[in-house]
Every structure is written in structure tokens, then in C-alpha cells.
Amino acid sequence: MFEKVLIANRGEIAIRVMRACRELDMKSVAIYSDADKTSLYTNYADESYPLGNPSPAKSYLNIEKIINIALESGADAIHPGYGFLAENPKFGEECEKNGIKLIGPSGKVIHEMGDKITSKALMKKAGVPVIEGTPEGVQDIEEAKEIARNIGYPVIVKASAGGGGIGMRAVYEEEELVRAIESTQSVAATNFGDSTVFIEKYLEKPRHIEFQLLADEHGNVIHVADRECSIQRRHQKLLEEAPSPIMTEELREEMGGSAVKAAEYIGYTSAGTVEFLYDNGNYYFLEMNTRIQVEHPITELVTNTDLIKEQIRIAAGEELSYEQKDIQVTGHAIECRINAEDPLNDFSPNPGKITGYRSPGGPGVRLDSGVYMNYTIPTFYDSMISKLITYGRNREDAINRMKRALSEYIILGVKTTIPFHKAILRNPNFISGDLNTHFIDTYKKGIESEMNNVIAEDLEIVNKLKSTFMPGKKIAAISAAVGSYQNQAKSHIGKK
To answer: What sequence ranges are listed for the domain Biotin carboxylation (predicted)?
Structure first.
């Protein structure tokens, strides 16, 4: 087992990995930019080292600087978390050159599965169902038109090197195709340094279902059940649950078997996720995430596993702690991503100082967070504040527990997605489990209207509890800020 692990990340995932290190009796090393000097995770670690400039390119994406800190601190392994360098094959190569173990799969696998065209071809060879589309990047516009006609509209144009929902555009008729290809190529070149795009059949109302995998270096591969991730905006997830409301034992065995087959075919090791689109009784490979997922806690709760500790053990050369028969799904879990975003303004980022904070608790509630009272959320990074997770005996229990936890969760000073999640949990279609990846767009008007009701209720709660946050003149400022948000909501709904 390792003696010291450097966490090449920040925020709540850094704390999550550090907790696993403590339970495994290993030292942890934090790295932080100038913008993260006061972040909670820097004090949670056993050691902390500065990165300087807060720009991601000069801090959390600076491979040379991070490797040098790992060597200086004596870390014998690096955990990349998710985002930043987690799926960068070059980072793995540099770790290996310097005798440091990257807690993740090989650079070769990261590269192959990070390219959507290559990964799709590999999955087809492995016998995993794939969506009909182009076998290689689109070069000729006239050829692209012919391909789209043969597939049948609607189609979707995707960046081959894309991720995080970036570089995707649905096309419903031929007149839109040229513009879609050109704009997607531009987005891909800017964000990924690779303008390659491809075309595939667009499923209009699929469910997004993914399977967690664990694979060791001794050839053992298992799936750790399924997650439903259909509540998304701009192809980015906002709320996840485990298991999927439509999952049966037979379907789990079939889809989980395909996920395992995918991992075995490419020689995968570590924790990873195979994502599928499910439509009308059929499922298709979407992509593979060669890292730990943001939503891993819901899987841990319903399967009684610790995926981060298992990931570390695998990297240390140990065999899996579990066999497939050990993975039993019990109960239901839901995760709400609490972001510093304005859900009434197209989820625009809203960083700033947290002027009032009360976290939820009680039975079946887990909060993965890296913030605190008076903490200032930086403008340079992802807008996530925390992940609120609830567990219940069944889906109804988990929903009701999440409603209760959200009512207890108070964050002042920045706008958050808490009202959005409250509105989603009241939506009758969500409650019935009638989900698809266009859920938010489909029910947008009703969700926004319900958010107006939610914000009014939240104002009453804040007024009752405001004296517990801060006394004196600031109370009036807090009430005014919340009231302003309420007025904004009313105005927004009125315009609709």
C-alpha cells in the first residue's frame, strides 16, 4: 500500500479522497492555487503545497508543476479525482516516467476511450451495442449529407474528443447540417485542440443510464450496478439516482454484462463508468469515463461499497475486495448537485462569498462539500458547491428524505440550484420516474413556476432563522438579497 498520496484536484473531491487515505492509514498531500488558499481541503490534508496562478492552465492543469510537488513531498501515488487531469493520457505517462503511480487506468486506455470515434469502434468489436453513425471523422460536407440521409434525421454532430456535454449539436433537417458541423468543429478545436467531429443517429427522448465498474490488475472485472442520470442541462448532469427507476434484475444483468465486456476487451483497470443511452427497450454505448464519477456516492450507498478506497487498493496492486455476487442493490439513493448557479437565468454561474450557511443532517443524509461560512467561491473553476445525497429504503423514501434535507440546507450570499432541485422533486413526472435527457426542457415552464413558489417559502425560512447566521445590520441585507431573488423569480415567470 502507498505511504503518501497527492490529490491533483480541489474542493469536495479532494476531501473525499483524503478521507479514504485516512481510513487506509496513508498521508495525503494537497495542492492549491492562489484562489484556493482558504479552501477547506488545504487544511484537511496532512501537507499542502501552493501552485500559484489561479488560472487552471497554470495550476491544476500544470503537469510539470504537479509532478515536481509530488517528488518534493515524497508522494508515491497521485489521485486525479475527476476533471482537470483525470482523463489526460500525458499525465499518466509523466507519472510513470517519474516513478509515481497514477491511481487510474493506463494512458493508452485513457487515450482510446477519450476519443469517441475510437471508443465506439472498439465497443463494436467487443460486441457492445452502439448507435448507428459514421465510423470516422467527417471530412467532406457532401459525404456528411449523404450519411445523414442514410441514417435518417434527426442526427447529432459530436466532437470526437469531447466531454462534459461540450461539442454536441442536434440537427433535424439537412439545411442545418453544414452550420452544425462548422460550429461543432470550432467548439471542438477551442476546447479540446481537436476539430474532428462525427455524426450519429439522435435519440430524441432516451434515458441516460450508466454502470459503475471496478477492474484490478489481475484480470478481475465487476460492475457495481447502475445509476440513472437523465436529469441534465446542456448534456451536463444535475441530479442522479441509483438504481434507475426502470431497472430490473434481468436488465441489470444484461447491461452490466455489456459494461464488463467493454472493460475486459480494452484491458481496463481501476474504477470507471460505461454510459449508455436507453430507448424503447434498447440500449447503446455512449462513452466510457476513465475516472471516478461525480455521482459515485449514490452507488456506494446502495451497494455498501467504498469506491475510492477500492480504486486506491487496485492501484497498489491488490485484487478486488468484491466478487460480482457480493454486489447487491439495497434501497435507493439520490444525489443533487448544489451549484453556485442561477437556475432562473439559464444556470449562469454565480460565484461569490457565502454569507450564511447551514448544512442538512439527520438519518440517511450525506453531504460531500468543501465550503463553509464566509468562504468565497472562486470564479476560475467549476461552480459546484457540494453534493447532497439521501438514502432510503425505496425511491419514495429517498425522495421524501431529499425534500427534507433540501429544506434544511441554507446557503446565502450566492444563488444556488437548491430551488431548482426542490421544484424537480415536486414534479409529478419525476415522482413517477418518467424521465429522459430532455426532461428539463420539456417541463421548463412548470419547473420555473414551481421555483417561484419555492423561493417564497425559502424567504420565510430564512426570516425565521436569520438571527442564527449573523446579528445586527447584516440581517436586513440578507433579507433584501433573498427578497430580490424572489422578485426576480416573479418577474421571470411573468415574462413567460
So the answer is: 1-445
